[in-house]
């Protein structure tokens, strides 16, 4: 089970950290409570800024708007 859950919805993403309960539904490509870190060819790391928990996610889980900022 992953520590950070990313669920796609119609107008963006829901991101929830299971470790500390931090959650965000960003309205733009900029996160306030999470950070996208260095990307591989097919994945990126999403880090919770509250507890520093990180998980690697495939880029196809991010919308094209977030993919642009992750690269």
In short:
The chain is mainly β. The chain is 10% helix and 41% strand. The longest helix has 7 residues.
Q: What series of H and E elements makes up the topology?
A: EEEEEEH
Mean pLDDT score: 79
Outline the biggest β-sheet: 3 strands, antiparallel
| Estimated radius of gyration | 11 Å
* Helix-residue proportion: under 10%
Can you count the beta strands?
A: 6
Spans with pLDDT under 50 lasting ≥5 residues?
Answer: none
> Strand order, biggest sheet?
1-2-3
Helix count from the secondary structure assignment: 1
Tell me the structural class.
Answer: mainly beta
Intertermini distance: 26 Å
User: What percentage of amino acids are in beta strands?
Assistant: 35-45%
Shape verdict: globular
Secondary-structure map with pairings?
Elements: E1 4-9, E2 12-17, E3 23-24, E4 34-37, E5 43-48, E6 54-58, H1 64-70
Antiparallel strand pairs: 1-2, 2-3, 4-5, 5-6
What does this structure look like?
The strands form 2 sheets. A 3-stranded antiparallel beta sheet has the order 1-2-3, with no helix packed on it. A 3-stranded antiparallel beta sheet has the order 4-5-6, with no helix packed on it. It is mostly beta strands and 71 residues long. The longest helix is centred in the last third of the chain and has 7 residues, at 64-70. It starts with a strand and ends with a helix. It contains 1 helix and 6 strands, in the order E-E-E-E-E-E-H.
């Amino acid at each position: 089970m992953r520590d950070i859950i990313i669920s796609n919805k119609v107008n963006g993403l829901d991101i929830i950290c299971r470790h500390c309960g931090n959650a965000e539904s960003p309205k733009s490509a900029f996160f306030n409570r999470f950070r996208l870190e260095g990307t591989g060819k097919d994945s990126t790391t999403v880090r919770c800024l509250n507890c520093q928990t990180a998980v690697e996610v495939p880029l196809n889980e991010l919308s094209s708007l977030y993919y642009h900022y992750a690269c």
